[in-house]
Amino acid sequence: NSILQKFLRRIAPQAIIIFILTAFMVLGVFVFQSIDPVLAEQSFFEVIFFEFITISTIGYGNQYPQTPSSRIFSIIFSIIGIPLLVVTLGNFGKYLTKFYWKARGWICSEKTDRELVNDADMPGYMIGVLYFLTFSIGFLYIPHSGKAYSIDDCYFSFISFATVGFGDKVPQIDTFMKFCKVTSYLMWGMIVNIMLISYMTTWFNEIFARTPYRGRDVEVLIGGQCITVSEITSLVAQQFHASPHDVRSILHDIDEIMDNMQTKDTSDDDSSEALVQ
Name one GO molecular function term (predicted). Predict the structure, then answer.
């Protein structure tokens, strides 16, 4: 039961966001079709795809609002929909990254640090592998207006994942199956792209900014050598055959004990002064 409750606590927020996003897009279909005669002639899934390329900021240009009222509504729809989609895809990227580190720990039979699982980015080489596999799938299975099995496949995938969407190459969604394939493919590609952006941001910060972004990355000088807090924790853990997480927990407990002792000493001093007076 505890495992199930823990699982539900982690999944419930994401499930709620997905439900809100889905309901929001379904409601948007009825609104768009009621105020835009061109969109009213399109199928339900074509309008859903129009909404998706709008809030994903791809905007191929082959679908767009035709009336003033639908243009105003598209602005409101984007203001609400873009954050919902970004949060949803970003969370999927985080879950995928956590799964990678946990799976790596299982496969390599090593205990994975909880902080590493929660904070670390997907390794660059793994993102490269995901990009290669994703582009390969697009090369073979994703229909678009360009020439099949050519550079147009990679070009279409890249401008879509990067949300550039020039409009010279657009997806073909004339059937429900194509709609499902293209939408799933674009969402997956954007998730990989978000992981790449996170990785590159961290890399640039480490290379150029030279400012620690976590307490465990702070460097201290010991014996004439610079060493990070994380490395010190790992060395202590190895010395006593414990995990880095256990060492950090002990240090945290010691900090609390010292704070309590300091508070108690302060209160005792105040009491003594009161008695003297």
Answer: potassium ion leak channel activity
**Quick check: is 112 in a domain?**
yes
Do 197 and 227 sit in the same domain of this protein? no
Which whole number is the average pLDDT over 161-187? 92
Q: Write the CA distances from 246 to 54, 220, 236, 241, 254, integer angstroms.
A: 47, 21, 10, 10, 12
Q: What is the pLDDT of residue 212?
A: 47
In a domain, 276, yes or no: no
Per-residue confidence (pLDDT) for residue 116, from 0 to 100: 52
Asked if 83 and 65 touch (Cβ cutoff 8 Å), the reply is no
Helix or strand holding residue 222 (H, E): strand 219-222
Q: How many CA atoms lie within 13 A of 268 on its CB side?
A: 6
Residues 133 and 239 in one domain: no
Q: What is the mean pLDDT of the chain?
A: 83
pLDDT at 223: 61
Determine, yes or no, domain membership for 99: yes
**pTM for this prediction:** 0.71
Q: Are residues 170 and 224 in the same domain?
A: no
d(CA 172, CA 175): 8
